[in-house]
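Milestone 3.1: sequence recovery, worked example.
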């Protein structure tokens, strides 16, 4: 009889749910997901619902980050083609670059995305550079390709549904220390492994207390208008930590317009002045958003929102650990690229989990 692995996953954002989904495909894994926030919640502590979300690679060539993004594209492509209930669809995208943004927070974040010959040109379909005579004023280079946009309000519950089909149990819980998770498995037995996918909350989670985490505050406006494409630019002249991007979510999810990239800014409330700047910049970059001659009054607003990206110095933490005798695998700190690296990162966490569980079984036999 196959050994059952009791696994507790902390966190139900895109990282926790994708990790749970991949692990749940193995029938020998008995999984409990424990989270303070679940899909359907809108809270400043819960980043995943606020994301655009899309596939605009930003990893440096040859890095683990770039590898995770490369490994994630086939999964997102498959969802858009074969799983229409997941809320993922293809979208033409235009990426604009201004050289003067290169040293700003947003320009640094977008540096690889806006390269003339980026590594991902061989990953995404239909990549081509836009001729210089077709560039918008002030833009130094631009490219277009086919990407995906994810309706987070559909996709996160879809992941929950897939996990539940495979026997995963979901529980609300607020834990002060990561070792408490070992006692949270739905079987009542001690967990063999805890997987930490708590994002920015790992900063304050006992036993982890990762001080290399920082909030990257992103403010958005969700509207009913359709810009006709996913459009972004490396920065703007209003502030070095503000930029312009827009994408229309699948299945009637509205168009997300952003944004900001404000490091170490915790404010959960939308800034009305920033909202006005976001809307004005979006219309200036993509006039098709509104009828001719209209300004921001032509935008039909669904909601304003703020999310805190889990930025981590040195990039995401995906590694095995032991905390007060509890076996742990970490998968957190994905900044502004949680969705577009989700399957690559989750696959790495699953691989580590397998190694940890095999070691535990080996010791149990001795």
């Amino acid at each position: 009889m196959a050994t059952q692995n009791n696994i507790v996953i902390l966190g139900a954002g895109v990282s926790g749910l994708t990790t749970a989904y991949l692990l749940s495909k193995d029938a020998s894994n008995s999984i409990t997901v424990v989270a303070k926030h679940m899909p359907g919640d809108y809270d400043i502590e819960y980043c995943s619902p606020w994301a655009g979300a899309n596939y605009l690679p930003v990893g440096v060539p040859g890095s683990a980050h770039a590898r995770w993004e490369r490994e994630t594209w086939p999964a997102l492509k498959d969802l858009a083609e074969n799983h229409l209930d997941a809320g993922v669809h293809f979208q033409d995208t235009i990426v604009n670059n201004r050289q003067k943004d290169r040293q700003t927070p947003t320009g640094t974040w977008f540096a690889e995305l806006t390269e003339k010959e980026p590594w991902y040109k061989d990953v995404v379909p239909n990549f081509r550079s836009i001729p210089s005579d077709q560039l918008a004023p002030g833009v130094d280079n631009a490219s277009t390709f086919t990407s995906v946009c994810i309706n987070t309000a559909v996709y996160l519950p879809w992941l929950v549904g897939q996990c539940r089909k495979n026997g995963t149990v979901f529980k609300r819980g607020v834990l002060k220390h990561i070792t408490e998770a070992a006692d949270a498995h739905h079987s009542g037995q001690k967990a063999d492994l805890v997987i930490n996918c708590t994002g920015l909350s790992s900063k304050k989670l006992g036993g982890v207390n990762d001080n290399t985490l920082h909030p990257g505050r992103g403010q958005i406006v969700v509207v009913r208008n359709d810009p006709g494409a996913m459009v972004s630019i490396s920065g703007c002249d209003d502030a070095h930590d503000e930029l312009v991007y827009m994408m229309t979510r699948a299945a009637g999810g509205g168009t997300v317009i952003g944004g900001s990239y404000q490091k170490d800014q915790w404010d959960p409330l939308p800034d009305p002045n920033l909202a006005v700047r976001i809307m004005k910049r979006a219309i200036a970059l993509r006039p098709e958003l509104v009828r001719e001659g209209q300004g921001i009054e032509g935008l039909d607003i669904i909601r304003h929102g703020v999310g805190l990206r889990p930025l981590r110095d040195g990039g995401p933490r995906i590694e095995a650990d032991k905390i007060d005798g509890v076996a742990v695998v970490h998968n957190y700190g994905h900044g502004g690229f949680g969705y577009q690296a989700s399957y690559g990162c989750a696959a790495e966490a699953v691989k580590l989990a397998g190694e940890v569980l095999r070691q535990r079984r080996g010791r149990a036999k001795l």
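The chain has six helices and 15 strands. The first helix runs from residue 14 to 24.
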